[in-house]
Amino acid sequence: MEIILGKPQIRGNSDVIFNYGAASAIAAGAAVKRTGEKEIAVFDGSGIPFGVSGYADNKNTPNKVAVIEAGKSVGVLLDDANEAISVGAQVYITAGGKFTAVATDNTPTAAVFVEKGDALNLATGEKIANGAALIDMVGGF
User: Fold this and answer.
1) Phi/psi of residue 131, each to 5°?
2) How far is 35 from 70, CA to CA, in rounded Å?
3) Can you give the pLDDT at residue 61?
4) Which of 5, 15, 71, 132 could link 28 by a cystine bridge, Cβ 3.0 to 4.6 Å?
């Protein structure tokens, strides 16, 4: 299965998506943190992760990034494509802004894994074998 990064696969009342400014490019499907009132950066182990980066708002404002703050079956980048992911396992975030089921040295969230599959970046067409997972983050992280 191809998982679209940075997008809830199940749309509905659980979605919370806002646009934020970003000083530099952020990969779709990465965890982000706030660096200012309306500014974000990739989560780096410091601060508090609050969402999953989506895609640039549009070609006219490439520094505006959609951020999924809550949702069902949100496509995220895995830290290790070879990691076995169990459905219902707790989601952790690495200091590199990627997702894992490994607790050691990683930041815990309230999200759970739903499925693992190939990553698909809609903006670039890039595919990563087993590089993505779907997570449920209905109430956010």
Assistant:
1) -95, 5
2) 19
3) 62
4) 5
Please state the φ and ψ torsions of residue 45, each to the nearest 5 degrees: 95, -15
Mean pLDDT, 10 residues at a time, over the chain (141 residues)? 89 86 91 93 96 81 86 96 95 98 96 96 89 95 93
* 43/92 Cα distance (integer angstroms): 12
What are 10's two structure tokens?
């199940």
| Token code pair at residue 51 | 């969402």
* Fold of domain 2-137: Virus Head Decoration Protein; Chain: A, (2.40.300)
pLDDT for position 101? 97
What global pTM score does this model have? 0.93
The residue extents of the domains of the chain are 2-137
CA-nearest of 1, 128, 131, 17 to 72 is: 17
